[in-house]
Every structure is written in structure tokens, then in C-alpha cells.
Design a protein that fits this description.
The chain contains five helices and eight strands, in the order E-E-H-H-E-E-H-E-E-E-H-E-H. By secondary structure, it is α+β, with helices and mostly antiparallel strands. The protein has one domain.
């Protein structure tokens, strides 16, 4: 029998965050590289797939975990399904209200690529990127499925390591240019369902 617990995840933006969808045909005066938004609410969010992919990548490149161990928990194996399920991470209620009331807006950052040989802006190098401003908070859930308590502890330990790595790295794009520093916290959601898992 597979047990289940949920962890709450809180992501506070430390430096401007960009998770983009790109734009093949930006409007004149528009944003070349917009932040991904919910198609219904039009509010920014962090896709679960982006978070999962980043945490997995960090574990593969910066931890002592073996590839098979990471694969088992992030993608599943012969003994069971994927152990870690990442939900989309939405604005916290407080920040959702701020965005809806127009008290805070996304930041539009303009960047220019320099032609190093000519020492001036390269042709067509002006680009605008939409970022989430610092102090914005996103909240969501991670579902953990486990076969036994030993496996549960292994998964929680790996997830905690991945969180530490992310807190010392970046989320989204352009991290080498200062984007995407975040502060991530995880907590187990205490519920009757978790207690019986």
C-alpha cells in the first residue's frame, strides 16, 4: 500500500524572477519575454514542472545522490509510480490581493547586448523581460508518495537537500545576470489524511 503526505512550499522572491513563455511576435512597445501567467486569472505563477526540473537538475549536478536514486523519486521505477508530485505554485493570498488591487506590478527590465568588437549596442539587441519583483511570495504543495517509512524518510531527506541547493542557486532564467534568487521553505501539512498515511 502506498502512503501519502503533503508538504507546503513557500517561495519568496529575493531578486527579480523570470519564468518565461517567450513571444514570437512582440507588439511594438510590448514585452519580448513575458512571465508565464494563468490563462484565466492572468496572475503569474510558478509551474510545477519548472520547480521539479530545477530541483532534479541541482541534485544531479551538485549532490552525492546517484542518478538511479534521483530517477526513482522523480520519475518512478518498477516498484511504484513517481514519488514526488509538484503542483503549480501560485501567489500567496496576500500577494494575489495586491496584484488584483493593482498595489504591485511586474517589473519590465530592458537589456542590451553589446557588440564587444565595436564597443556599442549590437544590432537588434534591445530586449525587454518581465520579472516578478523581490519580496513577492508564492505558495503551493508537493505530494509525496512512499512505499514504507524508510522510503518516506529518504524522500524527505532528498527534498530537503534539493531545497538547500535551490536556496544557494536560482530559479527560472538569467540566473548568471542576477535573476531568480529565492528563499524556499518546506513544511509538512498536518492533516488527518497525513496522519493516517
Amino acid at each position: 500500500m502506498v502512503g501519502k503526505i503533503k508538504k507546503s512550499i513557500r517561495i519568496e522572491v529575493v531578486t527579480g524572477l523570470h519564468i518565461g513563455i517567450g513571444s514570437d511576435r512582440p507588439e511594438i512597445g510590448g514585452v519580448d519575454n513575458p512571465f508565464i501567467k494563468d490563462p484565466i486569472s492572468k496572475l503569474p505563477y510558478i509551474p510545477g514542472s519548472s520547480l521539479k526540473g530545477k530541483l532534479r537538475s541541482l541534485l544531479e549536478t551538485e549532490s552525492d545522490y546517484k542518478e538511479k536514486e534521483i530517477e526513482k523519486f522523480f520519475a518512478g521505477d518498477d516498484l511504484g509510480p513517481t514519488r514526488l508530485i509538484f503542483r503549480d505554485v501560485k501567489l500567496s493570498e496576500e500577494w494575489k490581493n495586491k496584484y488584483e488591487k493593482g498595489e504591485v506590478e511586474t517589473e519590465i527590465k530592458t537589456e542590451i547586448k553589446i557588440d564587444r568588437q565595436k564597443g556599442k549596442a549590437a544590432h537588434g539587441a534591445l530586449r525587454t523581460t518581465e520579472r516578478i519583483p523581490p519580496t513577492t511570495v508564492f505558495e503551493g504543495e508537493i505530494l509525496i508518495r512512499f512505499v514504507n517509512n524508510n522510503e518516506k524518510e529518504e524522500i524527505e531527506k532528498m527534498l530537503e537537500k534539493a531545497k538547500e541547493l535551490l536556496n544557494n542557486d536560482y530559479l527560472g532564467g538569467s540566473g548568471s545576470r542576477g535573476y531568480g534568487a529565492v528563499k524556499v521553505t518546506l513544511n509538512e501539512i498536518k492533516s488527518e489524511e497525513n496522519a493516517n498515511a
